[in-house]
């Protein structure tokens, strides 16, 4: 309803669902940001306020750059597949070993890219003199880049491009992501007593996020939570007996 599917999919193809619950996660983040904003404002005014973050609003707010393009030009966006509507070359390319995603965001990065892959003459081609012209001639540019990158090892060229300041990365499957050295370095997969789960993406220097308890069986903490809330043992058992609350049967 907010347009996300309309811009997602292959060029000329059907609208495609995004493969992650992006709107749900963005709305949760917006709610958190709203709470923090309200807390900061309360420190100045001494007053509270209602904080609202809606799925629909968050989904529309994610429509960058397509919504801005439409509001400025009046032209409805079309699906570009992996390519970017405003920037070129910004697309997925196959190498000798794997696919890589190249995100050349400006003329300086394009110059670095051309020199690194051994084709500085592309810089003298009037079709590619600016991002706007590269966008108009993206098909010709893609054909040239595809032919050249097919000669490189994907992981190696991606590392070289990154070191040169050109945004690029291999298109990794999830098992490779989990085992990637940078994933380990950033502690984005945590392991504790046989449990593996997400790390936290927000790193705090003084109070970092840690694994404080392992996932419990559903209902394992019901009695403890209700007791901490002030319910008596008899009241808790009555709630469980009436199926108002659920408590896991203790393992024997």
Which features would summarize this protein structure in a list?
formyl-coa transferase, domain 3; single chain; mainly alpha; 3-stranded antiparallel β-sheet; 252 residues; 11 helices; 4 domains
Précis, in short:
The protein is mainly alpha-helical and 252 residues long.
Overview of this structure, please?
The protein is mainly alpha-helical and 252 residues long. It has 4 domains: 5-73, no CATH class; 90-171, formyl-coa transferase, domain 3 (2-Layer Sandwich); 173-203, no CATH class; 217-252, no CATH class. 41% of the residues lie in helices and 8% in strands. The protein contains 11 helices and 5 strands, in the order αααββααααβααββαα. The chain has helices at 22-45, 55-61, 66-73, 107-116, 131-136, 138-149, 154-163, 174-179, 181-185, 222-228, 233-241; strands at 90-94, 99-103, 168-170, 189-192, 195-198. The strands form 2 sheets. Strands 1-2-3 form a 3-stranded antiparallel beta sheet, with helices on one face. The chain has a two-stranded antiparallel ribbon with strand order 4-5. β4 (189-192) and β5 (195-198) form a beta hairpin. α1 (22-45) packs across α2. It is elongated, with a radius of gyration of 25 Å. The mean pLDDT is 95.
- Tally of DSSP helical segments: 11
- CATH level-1 class of the largest domain: Alpha Beta
- Work out the strand percent: 5-15%
Tell me the domain tally. 4
